[in-house]
Structure formats: C-alpha cells, structure tokens
Description:
By secondary structure, the protein is mainly beta.
Amino acid sequence: MTLSIHRRDLVLGAAALAATPAFAQDGLGGIRMPASVIDSELRGLSPTGGKRYWTSGSKGWLIRGRDERQDAMRIVGAETLDFRGLHAFDDSHVLAMSAGPGEASQLWRTKDSGKTWKRIAANQDPEGFWDSIAFVDSKRGFILGDPTKGRFTVLYTADGGETWARLKDEGVPPAAPNEGAFAASNGCVAIGPRGQVAFCSGGAGKARVYVSRGGGGVFVATDTPILADAPSKGAFAVAYDKHGVLWVCGGDYQKPKADGVNLARMEPGRVSFEAVAAPTGYLSGISVKGSTVMATGLAGTIVSRKGGPFQRVSAAPMNTVRLSSEKSAVLCGPKGAIGLWRA
C-alpha cells in the first residue's frame, strides 16, 4: 500500500539532501566528519568501547571504525541488502539486520571482526518488513517489524539471535490503519534500565509509543505530541535514560526543516508524554548517556547537557547517533557520512 512504500523508502529522501558543513558552539563541542570511504546510506550504528564502533547501511556495506579510521567491508552474498539495523556485542561479535520486504529482511552474524559472516535468520512472512533490532543482554533481544495481520511484528530471542519467535497477539495491541514503524536509524526500539521495552510508530494521526514495563510480554500504546498525519510523519526513535525517563523524537522526513513538535519525554510512573522545546527540524535518532541527550536527523544534530536547553551543534544531515559517554558520540548518515562528536 502507499503508506508502506513511502515509509520503507526513507533512503530516497535522505540521499537527496545535500550535506552541509558541521559547526560547533561554545560549551557543546563539535562534530568532526572524516572523509567518507563508501557510497552507502548508513543507518545501523553500535559503539563497542573507547573510540571503536560499527556502522552499517545500504548495498551490503559495513564499517568497523576506530575514531577517524574506517575499515569498510561487504558481506559476500548480501551485496544487495540494506543493513539498517546493527548490534555489536563487542568489537568481534556483531549482528547485522537488513530491512526489506519479505526475505529481504535478514540477520547475519560475525564472530571474528567481519572476516567471515553467516546468515542466521530471514523473514519468512512475505508481508513482513523488519525495522529495528535491540538487545537486553547477550542472550535476550527483540526485532520489530511492520504490522502484519493487524498487529506489529515483535520477535523475541533468548539465545543471542540464533532462534526467534513472534510474541503472542494478546501482548501487542492492534495497529491503527496506516500505522507503521520507520527503519530510519535502528532507533525505533529501546531497552530501559530495568528491562523495559519500548517501540514507536507513525503514519496514523498521532505518533505512538508502545511500552512494556515487564520486559516485553505485554505492550501498552501511548500517544505522543508528535504529529503523524501523513506517511512521512511520526515518531522515529526512542531512548531511555538511566533513571527510566523515556525520550522520543520524530517529525517529517520529506520536510526535514518543517515546524512542529519533534521531541518529547515521559517521566517514570507517568502515562503521558510532554513536548520538549528544541530547535526546528526532523529527528530520526536519539541517544542518552548520563545527563547528555543528543538527537539527529536530516536537519542536523541537537544536544542538551546537564539539563540545559537543546541547541544545534551541526547542520550536517545524519540518520543515527549513539553516545559512548556524556562527552562523546558517533553519528552516521547519507553517502557514507561518519560524525565524531566531542564536548
């Protein structure tokens, strides 16, 4: 249907936006952008400690990075896949998730830093489309997929990704007409400090966040103040802080500089989100570490430190951000872009 095509083809809108230089502001640091080594829309991102990280994207490409050094690789047999999801257990052990209709959604594993890869799972539902992957620990993890049979696809593993089972229907509320998730940043699933699981959606009027406070058994849907009255609008990413505050960001990827609520948060114990003041623009990824909150998208990157107001630290279009500490982060985006933030 039209909604699914628009939402799933996010890569077209991102690649069409020309990059602009990064810039810094006093007290908030800046973003260095080393030269791109591949022509790939990068969306999957996972730090592995220190200045090391993995990132993944379209055309079967992945990068194993250490600060500005980028070692690019393609998985043999997966050159046509779009790896929008990524989870690195450590620098050697990595799961890469591709997003696409039917069997184009696949899961590949390396345990030797990318020297060899093995496909360990593939979507068997021809109507399905995987959006994001997240792990609670080394064994328990989730894959979120677009709705099929009227409900979101939530897959669960208890063996590190070797086998997956779909959660029972009674655990996931029915999806609204035209509702779906966005495979924009591998950010539409978040794990909380006490094992909570949350995922976000758009395309159905108001963006919603589904929360399971009991570790993924039963999800409850909550509206957010982010609008989702078009296939390109909604909530794109969620993140918990260490206290259990749940953040959500989004907007309109087809109009990345448009006005409107693009950021909200829900305090522990509350049942509703409140809008957060932030610079204008579409946000597809968000990350929280300590007292630092950073969000990014095609309109650039914003950050709040120590409870201060959100300010823009870069105008360069990005897809994904992951904080590795309160003062450092890695970002990735269109045309193989890598960003390195230091406060």
